[in-house]
Design a protein that fits this description.
binds calcium ion, 15 strands, Jelly Rolls, 2 domains
């Protein structure tokens, strides 16, 4: 069968389209993938906490303190790298060690006391070493557990969980608190503390901390035992 000229032209155009359109789509996809890769940046971070932390990036677990909180004097620093795209949020779960819900440690011994907390972190761009974020009074924190509510608990000869003066306060927080879009405007600002107040040790000196990286905690270094903090990078 002999095709009419217009029909031949039509089939030719159709064949060309079938070859070209997928190619254009492929090029588009590759370009899109490249632009995603271009906006993802490598970062490096350092964290030191008395006593323990877990860190989430946009709600996904990024790193957990490698030393268990039940290890006596569990002071150590963690240094790590990650990839992220701005804006992102680093959500920290900080814990000061407590033997039970009285908030005390070394219970029943002569060393019975309220332990104290403290945390510091810094994030650098891994390729050009620009400082990107640090812990300081601009970050938002929320106290989840506070104990003992009366500091005289530390002098009790038989401190009892849930009994005055050793009662605790527990504050609920939305499960979404680690997410980028969580509204933390109601949270308090972190409180900055001096090295003298926290006396950071074991691992703290292994890091060259930027002057703007501050030791932070809630309003009370001793009574605030579980603290959630958010560090947004815009
Ligand atoms: Ca401690
Ligand atoms: Ca404490």
């Amino acid at each position: 069968m002999k095709l009419e000229k217009p029909t031949q032209n039509y089939l030719l155009a159709l064949a060309i389209s079938l070859c070209i359109i997928p190619s254009l789509l492929m090029i588009g996809m590759v370009t899109a993938r490249q632009s995603i890769a271009e906006t993802t940046t490598a970062y490096k971070g350092d964290v030191w906490v008395d006593n323990w932390f877990k860190l989430y990036l946009n709600g996904e677990e990024l790193i957990e303190d490698s030393v268990s909180i039940t290890t006596e004097r569990s002071f150590n620093k963690e240094s790590f790298t990650f990839e992220a795209k701005k804006p992102f949020v680093l959500a920290f779960e900080f814990k000061d060690f407590m033997e039970n819900a009285t908030g005390l440690e070394y219970i029943g011994s002569r060393r019975q006391q309220m332990g104290d907390g403290g945390a510091i972190a810094q994030i650098y761009n891994a390729s050009n070493s620009t400082l990107v974020a640090t812990t300081n009074a601009d970050m938002k924190c929320f106290v989840v557990q506070k104990a003992p509510l009366n500091k005289s608990c530390a002098q009790e000869s038989d401190p009892r969980v849930g009994q005055a003066p050793c009662t605790q306060e527990i504050n609920d927080v939305d499960a979404n608190w680690r997410a980028l879009d969580f509204d933390d405007s109601d949270w308090a600002n972190a409180i900055e503390y001096s090295e003298r107040a926290v006396s950071p040790k074991h691992g703290y000196d292994q890091v060259s901390w930027a002057p703007s990286a501050k030791l932070i905690w809630g309003s009370d270094l001793e009574q605030d035992n579980i603290l959630y903090c958010r560090l947004k990078v815009e």
